[in-house]
Amino acid sequence: MDENRFDAIMTNGSLPDPKSIDVNGIIEDLWKEYVDSTDSLLSEIEASALAIDTGKNVNDNIANVKRILHSIKGEAGMIGANDIHELCHTAESALEDVTDYSTITDMVLKVKDWIHEAMKYVNLNENKNKQNKNDKNAKKLRVLIVDDMNICRKRVKMLLKDLFDCTFAANGREALEMYQQSMGQNSPYNLITLDINMPEMNGHETLIAIRKTEEEHGITGLDGVKVIMTTTEDNSKHIFNAFREGCEAYVVKEQVDKKLLEEITKLGLLQEQKQYSVK
């Protein structure tokens, strides 16, 4: 199947047929939950788009549209809905250049309708064979998966559950408290996957706080928890700051399937896990 292109959204042109959506990479086990989550966001984005057209609270509603597009994009990238991810990404870029309110409304509604129709078309088999699970009694290293999006947390768990004992945090402040508690119980996490855009504390603030906590406990360098940023933010400023703050790796969400285990392997955690499970 040819790759869909959505550049026409920038000139308010026609989009590809929603039935051309590529379903091959979609994670079936997460699809229903993604649809439920996205349906709610599509209703919200439609309301904001219509409010923009009337000139009501324009700046707030444009900001809300951008936030919703970012959320839909992030979750789409995590579950392999690559066409929806690309459409949202292109629409986000287009919004930076459009100033006419009616044009913004038309563009956002067109994006909303395309996603809605594409999701209706997708008919996935939810009874696919499940991957064999490892022995549940085997001791595993511990990972704290930090993300405010439930689907993103579940997707990372699907990738790591056979290798790690997975725990969730829905925001940075909760993650910091859980990490501090694990240290107090002398059972610290071996790995943290950390989103950037979150409420309470963002990923940068959380990473800085984690490293400060470790310093206060005399933990430095290679003895600290391994932190991998998992985020939709792919610009150099975020990447540079994250490494300066002390992360070991940086994975953009739409590449998490290909890159996360690769980065974990580079950090030596898979070999460490194998040795630990044998004990």
Q: How would you summarize what this structure contains?
A:
By secondary structure, the chain is of the alpha/beta class. It has a five-stranded parallel β-sheet with strand order 2-1-3-4-5, sandwiched between helices.
Structure description:
The chain is an alpha/beta fold. The protein folds into two domains: 115 residues, HPT domain (Four Helix Bundle (Hemerythrin (Met), subunit A), Up-down Bundle), CATH 1.20.120; 138 residues, Response regulator (Rossmann fold, 3-Layer(aba) Sandwich), CATH 3.40.50. The chain has ten helices and five strands. It has a five-stranded parallel sheet, with helices on both faces. Strand 1, helix 5 and strand 2 form a beta-alpha-beta unit. The longest helix has 26 residues.
Distance between the termini: 48 Å
Which structural class do the helices and strands define? Answer: alpha/beta
CATH superfamily of the largest domain: Response regulator
Which fold does the CATH topology of the largest domain refer to? Rossmann fold
> Overall 3D geometry?
elongated
How many distinct folded domains? 2
What portion of residues belong to β-strands?
5-15%
Which short descriptors sum up this protein?
alpha/beta, 279 residues, Four Helix Bundle (Hemerythrin (Met), subunit A), five-stranded parallel sheet, 54% helix, elongated, Rossmann fold
